[in-house]
Design brief:
binds adenosine-5'-triphosphate, single chain, 3-stranded antiparallel β-sheet
């Protein structure tokens, strides 16, 4: 028996600047599974994840989420001039549909350790490499232990060891019961996913 869907999206339509980019997309994300959202550039993957997260609203269709949700974006929403450390960013948590408790210092340290950034916790985010920042954002997403974890290309620009670590972290998140969905161009992530949603021209294949 498949686990029940924690997040369902039904018949989503969305237009950027009056141009339709999603045409009737439906998906269901289940607890304990990793879903890879794959497809060519411009297929609508990031837009779909933003609709699932509630960052954007569909022109038509509905998203239902029966739990807490964390979204891991590709770029930090904080400007480089803001003097925030890796620890601050992770402690801040990420976009969330629901109010949540501030993570404990121990949980923040554990999340930073899991993404392989132990030792860099007190470094300003702006001083990190692109790949290290990506991993800081992953730590920001996992620290919340949300029921649904959405990620937009968390392995973009990472070296092979870091990509492998990211895949392992997402598998661990699913193993603790999260419904994980991840936009990816990484063949191994697609092969290892429990479910693959393939988008092309705004439609699920
Ligand atoms: N802010 C925006 N304003 C206008 N059009 C946009 C905007 N963001 C995306 N689009 C358009 O919407 C379509 C889907 O874009 P989206 O970023 O969702 O694709 P994607 O599958 O995530 O692509 P990639 O693999 O390159 O990240 C594309 O045609 C893109 O040009």
């Amino acid at each position: 028996m498949p686990s029940p869907a924690v997040l369902t999206a039904h018949d989503l339509h969305f237009a950027h600047d009056g141009r339709d980019v999603l045409h009737g997309v439906s998906v269901a994300l289940r607890s304990g599974t990793v879903t890879a959202v794959a497809g060519p550039n411009g297929a609508g993957k990031s837009t779909l994840v933003e609709l699932l997260a509630g960052v954007r609203s569909p022109r038509r269709g509905v998203v239902t989420c029966r739990g807490s949700l964390a979204l891991v974006v590709q770029r930090p929403a904080v400007p480089d001039t803001l003097p925030v450390t890796v620890h601050d960013v992770v402690a801040m948590g990420t976009w969330s549909r629901r109010r949540r408790l501030r993570p404990t210092a121990g949980a923040v340290a554990a999340a930073i350790d899991r993404v392989g950034l132990a030792g860099l916790a007190d470094r300003p985010l702006a001083s990190l490499s692109g790949g290290q920042r990506q991993r800081a954002l992953l730590a920001q997403g996992i620290v919340q232990r949300a029921d649904v974890l959405l990620l937009d290309e968390p392995a973009a620009g990472l070296d092979s060891r870091s990509r492998e670590r990211t895949r392992a972290v997402l598998a661990e998140e699913a193993a603790r019961g999260a419904a994980v969905a991840c936009v990816t161009h990484d063949d191994t992530s697609i092969e290892q996913a429990d479910v693959v949603v393939r988008l092309e021209d705004g439609r699920v294949l």
